[in-house]
Specification:
Order of helices and strands: HEHHHHEHEEE
Low-confidence stretches: none
Strand order of the largest sheet: 2-1-3
Largest sheet: 3 strands, antiparallel
Number of domains: 2
Number of strands: 5
Structural class: alpha+beta
Mean pLDDT: 84
Number of helices: 6
Strand content: 15-25%
């Protein structure tokens, strides 16, 4: 039994694959045109899926519910999990960059982190912005280390700050609670067995094609490949 988001994602993925097969066929036909003395002077046919509509019947079967009322709504994180996630990232980066801080400073850092988490997660109905929290906590920790007066290499501390921010963001994201999913019946047999057609829902998707293409971008004596709008 698929989740509704997975079902819709597969449909959109299949339309992308359809366009890819159409382009591959256009290339094959282009080769044929190039090899023919008369066809080579004619335009090569190529089809695009400019827009189309899909009308799908679905039956909603069930919806996941949060298993713990302490957890925040829809993909949230509780404060203790943020604290633990950031502490793991901090310990790993201090070790990686060989930055040694006294135990009293480490305790002070822990207290400040808890205070900042409390202020950043005040409204439980709003999911935590992992990037914002990671950036805020990293900035607070880096400032404390700088103000401590220790003999720290500034360049090493800058690299430590950048990597701590990224590592903390990933650790915090890993603690998110799963978002409740909506499960649906979509096959013909399942929909027929569900009962009266009146209970069926219908999804009408208006799909428009947009394209990107590879482009070469010159920057700082370096050539980069980027996907840009067609």
């Amino acid at each position: 039994m698929p989740n509704l988001g997975d079902f819709l994602g597969h449909i959109l993925a299949e339309t992308t694959i359809a366009r890819m097969h159409a382009d591959l066929e256009a290339l094959r036909v282009a080769d044929l045109y190039a090899s023919h003395p008369l066809l080579r002077h004619m335009p090569v046919p190529r089809f695009r899926l400019s827009d189309f509509e899909i009308d799908l019947p679905v039956v909603i079967d069930q919806m996941d519910e949060a298993k713990d009322d302490k957890l925040y709504l829809r993909g949230g994180i509780i404060k203790e999990q943020i604290d633990g996630a950031f502490t793991r990232a901090l310990s790993a980066q201090l070790l990686k960059h060989d930055i040694r801080v006294p135990s009293d400073l480490l305790k002070n850092i822990g207290d400040i982190v808890k205070q900042r988490i409390e202020s950043l997660t005040a409204v439980k109905e709003i999911a935590v912005d992992a990037s914002r929290v990671a950036s805020d906590l990293t900035k607070s920790v880096t400032q404390l280390i700088l103000k401590s007066g220790g003999d720290f290499d500034r360049e090493r501390l800058r690299l430590f700050s950048d990597e701590l921010r990224n590592a903390a963001r990933l650790e915090i994201l890993a603690e998110r609670t799963p978002v409740p999913r909506l499960q649906v019946l979509v096959t013909t047999r399942e929909i027929k067995e569900a009962g009266s057609p009146e209970i069926n829902g219908r999804l009408k998707l208006q799909i428009y094609e947009d394209c990107v293409e590879w482009a070469l971008i010159e920057r700082d004596d370096e050539t980069l490949e980027r996907l840009v709008p067609e």
